[in-house]
Amino acid sequence: MRTCELELEETNAGLQQKVSIGQRQLAQLEKCYYQKVDALHRENQMMQAKLADKEDQLQATKDCVTLKESEIMRLKLRLCSMDQCNNHLDKVSDTAVPLQVTNGCCNSMKSKRRSSSCGGPASRCAEWKVTAATNRIKEREKEGEKQEC
C-alpha cells in the first residue's frame, strides 16, 4: 500500500506539473490572442478613418464637379443669350437700323461662328435651359438631404 501511495503521489505531482504548464501556456495564448485582437481593432479603426477620409475626398470631388458643371451650363446659357442677341442684331441690321443697344442686347459685332455653335434659331439652348433647371433641382435635393442629416 505504501508503494501504491508513493506511485499515486508521483502521478499526482506529475499531473499537477502538467496542469501548471498547461495553465501557463493557456495564459500565454490568451495574452497573444488579446494582443492580436487589439492590433486588429486598431488596424480596423485606422482603415475606417482612411475610408472616411476617402469618402470625404470623393464627396468634395463630386461637389467640385457639380460646381464646374453648373459653371459650364451657365456659360452655355450665356453663349446662347449672346447668340440670341446676335440673331436679334442680325434682324435689326437687316432692317437698316444702326447697330446699337436694342432690347437689352449688347453692342457687339455679329458673330456667325458663335451663332452656329449654338445651333442658330433651332439651337440647343432650350435643351441646355432644361438641363440647367434639372441641375438646380438636383442641387436643391442634395441640400435638403444634407439638412436632414
Low-confidence stretches: 96-122
Give the helix proportion (percent range). Answer: over 70%
Q: Which structural class should the secondary elements be placed in?
A: mainly alpha
Categorize the overall geometry: rod-shaped
Overall average residue pLDDT: 78
Strand percentage lies at: under 5%
Extended strand count = 0
Features:
single chain; 149 residues; mainly alpha; 3 helices; rod-shaped
What does this structure look like?
This protein has 149 residues and is an all-alpha fold. The protein has a domain at 64-149. The chain contains three helices and no strands. The protein has helices at 2-94, 112-118, 125-148.
Task: Summarize this entry quickly.
The chain is mainly α and 149 residues long.
Task: Furnish the topology, listing elements before pairings.
Blueprint: H1 2-94, H2 112-118, H3 125-148
Helix pairs in contact: 1-2, 1-3
